[in-house]
Amino acid sequence: MNDFLNEGKLRYDAPRYDEIETFLNHLHKIAKYNPFVKVTHDMVYSEMEKCTLPSKDFDSPGRPKYVKPIFDKWISRFRNIPNISVFNSDRWEYWCQFINKSRGDEFIKIYVPLNSEGLENGVTELFNFMATHNMHHQSKVGKFLRNDNVVIRLDKGDEKSLKMLLHFINTNPRIKPYLNKPNPFLPCINGIGVMNETGISYNSELCSIITNYIQEHRKDSKISVDDFMKYAKQRMYKKEMLSAFTKATSGQPQYFEAYENIQGTVEKTSLTDIQKQALLNDTIKATYNKYGMHQVVTALMKATTANDYSYFTNGTKGYRDFLRKNVKSEEIKKMISMSIIGIYKKQYTNLRDIIVDYCRYYIEDDMTEKLDEMCEVTIENHGTNFLAGSVDRYCRTGKTDSFSRFKKGDKSGRNYRDNCKFIPPESMLYAIRKSLRQKGVDTTYISNDMLGQIYANALSDSKYSMEFDEDADMKIYR
User: Fold this and answer.
1) CA 170 centroid distance within chain
2) Cβ atoms of 66 and 203 closer than 8 Å
3) Which end of the chain, N or C, is less packed with Cβ atoms under 10 Å?
4) Strand 107-112 to strand 137-142: parallel, antiparallel, or no bridges (unpaired)?
5) Is residue 179 predicted with pLDDT exceeding 90?
6) 184 Cβ partners below 8 Å, 6+ apart?
7) d(Cα 180, Cα 65) in Å, to the nearest integer?
């Protein structure tokens, strides 16, 4: 283990600046030469998880290999093996899960980027080893090949098992020769992604930052890694996010620590205006995704007029408490007003209109996603013309009963009509225009009366087929 140990400490690999630059330039080129294509979080995540895969790991251009048929083989092989349970549940059908009951709720997260040739045998070897040594973990393998396809969660603090596992991976002849490179933003030890999991999705949050950076610089002649590094760090108001990013990109030696004192946000005195804006937007999105648009508008009105933050959700990441501690009521009002007036270049007569437009703008991707999800179910059940009528009825009357509630074959009992709370009637046409533009439809000369029918036709004929990853809030584009 001398190649990644230094006086007993696990040392992180050197930064991969060239690969980071290649990835950013790839996204910048897409944005620069396709002005009508909006760079979204889902697009960036999709590109990131396959950016290091060789051509042999794709079924077709842009579509990584489908590996779910191997799930049944693993389930069968491990059926009578002690210290491990292997299964594929209806709820998370994307993942084959490998579990030996963990003893806590905090984990060391390990990414093993096995290629298509070595995936079946490598996974078998890996989890046989972990079962033999009775390692406690919650792990999974996805049904499409990715550079983060094999994810292991060891109990936090179990550095002994981590060292054993890394040594095994890097010396096993059925694993080591079949490793791809992980994504270049991931902190790695000898080519294996390793980080403490502390309540955030590092890859997802980083993709949000990359998305905003590319959108803001899409017209620039070129971009630079140094500029992106500064941009990214300014927007990382959570210490655990900044810690992981530093380990992946710092030119100085970095070491794994089983317990890092990095909880919470950075201190108030060091929180920049950009970080405050990022914290506000994250709090808005979290509240929206839990309660809907009306709650977000109410929360912002209460915060800016009564210094009352209680209408925001706290969630598992402490958004409300972070916001109350770090951003004053007057600062929220100033940020919202300056941002939205600068975007829309129009005069507002009241604060509520500013807040509504701000919410629409900063949660438009979430809003169009929930719109498409609900409307796709209605199309499946009743057809394109029925959806067009449902949209028109909702915009005119606010009545939701024309949208389908349940998806055929969905055993979860989820009510998709509930998505209406995320798209109030007054925002429906706005969300539809956003969705159409994302699908490449120019809405400039489309009247509101025709939007419903055109949207229904576009959704029915859409080329963007997606598979939802329920655990990591990602989409796999096919």
Assistant:
1) 29
2) no
3) N
4) unpaired
5) yes
6) 16, 19, 20, 23, 51, 52, 248
7) 14
Which three-class secondary structure state does DSSP give residue 211?
helix
Q: How many CA atoms lie within 13 A of 349 on its CB side?
A: 0
Tokens of 263: 């909880």
Tokens 């009002």 -> residue: 333
Q: Cβ distance 156 to 258 under 8 Å? A: yes
**Alpha carbon distance 436, 424 (integer Å):** 18
- The ranges assigned to domains in the chain are 61-180, 268-362, 364-466
Residue 474: C-alpha distances to residues 152, 204, 265, 302, 322 (Å): 18, 8, 25, 32, 25
381 Rama sector, left if φ>0, alpha if ψ -120 to 50, beta otherwise:
alpha
Torsion of CA 443, 294, 468, 478, to 10 degrees: 10
CA 459 to chain centroid, in Å, comes to 23
284-317 per-position pLDDT tens digit: 888 988 888 889 999 999 999 999 999 999 877 7
For residue 107, the surrounding DSSP H or E stretch is strand 107-112
Beta bridge partner(s), residue 476: 467
Between 2 and 315, residue with greater pLDDT:
315
pLDDT band at 191 (very low <50, low <70, confident <90, very high): very high
**What's the residue count for the chain?**
478
Predicted TM-score of the model (pTM): 0.64
Q: What angle do CA 455, 457, 458 make, to 5 degrees?
A: 65
Number of Cβ within 10 Å of residue 421's Cβ equals 15
Pick from 311, 353, 358: nearest CA to 336: 358
Return the H-helix or E-strand segment holding 109: strand 107-112
103 pLDDT band, cuts 50/70/90, is low
- In this structure, the dihedral spanned by the alpha carbons of residues 438, 442, 444 and 445, taken in order and rounded to 10 degrees, is -140
